[in-house]
UniProtKB/TrEMBL annotation:
SMART domains, sorted: THUMP
Name used for this protein in its record: Class I SAM-dependent RNA methyltransferase
Occurrences of domain THUMP (ranges): 44-155
Gene3D superfamilies attached to this UniProt entry: 3.30.2130.30, Vaccinia Virus protein VP39
GO biological process: methylation
Length: 374
């Protein structure tokens, strides 16, 4: 049976996520603002949750109902038969996104949806589900847009950017989903060396290693929300999971991360151990000025600090100049990518860019700067 799904993604990553979903077998894939619509069966839902590297969560679209105001929303939700998706013995929670002129408070809208569902159960069974905001059996998403409400089930639960491998995080860590998307934006392929000279807790290097070894990022998670659904097919999930385990490769390029902060290097090494490939990716405690290219060609990528205030920006001028000098002097024959959220700092690199890609990093407008180093 074919169902309608919607994958939520970071702003600007819709096309990359669409290509991932197409590669996994999604049908009628269509990018939308911060999301991707697609169709497929239950196996595809499991596979996308397990394999997609750039999305936050997958919603199973149940119904689009009229919601001109709170009363119409209540009646529309109550009219929909919830019995196939939620039994009174299960707990649930409602998350609301979007708004309209008469439904502009997400908490109130979520309460209306919740009230309609439990009232339906009370009339039908004489009992109702309990609300559990911490660990619910079923997560219902209500998205308001114009005078319509899209009712969905959240199949992922905790955001998919939380792979499960990263118990240790450095300061201002890059989301795993964004790191994976940025790697897709570069010229890097799993047969090329990769270096991150400002690795922090190792997100770029670890995500690249997952790609190189063809490891599904969802293998490290303890649970997905769909595993509590009434229609959960454990045999099908076991088959999807087993195939993912068997897909791992053993060929590995040179992937290196280094950082001047010894503590975050230890964190990166801990994260690599959590993935089971501490021997595959190398992390070094090393100052930027001492970084050397491990091969005559490859891809360098890094996410240096941006500097939030003017005084911080000015203090970072010498650091960015040093970064440009290291690239120019030590990485001839390489292609470098710098994620920068400050135009004044990017000027201090002192190299000509060959490409500039707009990127949103947690609400901060950034640019992925490409440098061809000759």
């Amino acid at each position: 049976m074919t169902y309608q799904y919607f994958a939520t993604v970071g702003r600007g990553l819709e096309d990359i996520a669409s290509q991932e979903i197409i590669s996994l077998g999604g049908d009628n894939v269509k990018a939308d603002f911060t999301g991707v619509h697609f169709q497929g069966d239950l196996e595809l839902l499991y596979r996308v949750n397990l394999w997609c590297r750039t999305i936050f969560r997958v919603l199973w679209t149940l119904k689009v109902v009229p919601s001109y105001d709170s009363e119409q929303l209540y009646q529309s939700v109550k009219k929909f038969d919830w019995s196939d998706f939620l039994s009174p013995s299960q707990t649930f929670v409602v998350h609301c996104t979007g708004k309209s002129p008469r439904l502009n408070h997400s908490h109130f809208t979520a309460l209306q949806v919740k009230r309609a569902i439990v009232d339906q159960q009370q009339e039908k069974y004489g009992v109702r589900s309990d609300i559990d905001t911490e660990n619910p059996d079923v997560i219902i998403n209500a998205h308001i847009r114009e005078n319509k409400c899209t009712l969905s089930l959240d199949s992922s639960g905790e955001s998919l950017h939380r792979r499960g491998y990263r118990p240790a995080m450095g300061r201002a860590p890059l989301k795993e989903t964004l790191a994976a998307a940025l790697l897709y934006m570069t010229d890097w392929t799993p047969d090329l060396p990769l270096v991150d000279p400002l690795c922090g807790s190792g997100t770029f290097a670890i995500e690249a290693t997952l790609m190189a070894l063809n490891i599904a990022p969802g293998l490290y998670r303890r649970e997905f929300a769909f595993q509590r659904w009434n229609n959960y097919d454990s045999d099908l999930w076991d088959d999807v999971f087993r195939k993912a385990e068997e897909a791992e490769k053993d060929t590995m390029p040179i992937i290196v991360g280094s950082d001047a902060d010894e503590d975050v290097v230890l964190q990166a090494q801990s994260n690599a151990r959590a993935c089971g490939f501490a021997d595959k990716v190398k992390f070094y405690h090393q100052k930027l000025i001492d970084v050397e290219a491990p091969a005559d060609h490859g891809i360098l990528i890094c996410n240096p600090p941006y500097g939030k205030r003017l005084s911080e920006t000015e203090q970072l001028f010498p650091f960015y100049k040093l970064l440009g000098d290291v690239l120019k002097q030590r990485f001839k024959g390489w292609t470098a990518y710098i994620l920068c959220g400050n135009k004044e700092l990017s000027k201090k690199v002192g190299l000509r860019t060959s490409r500039r890609i707009p990127v949103d990093n947690g609400g901060i407008p950034c640019t992925l700067l490409k440098y061809d180093l000759y």
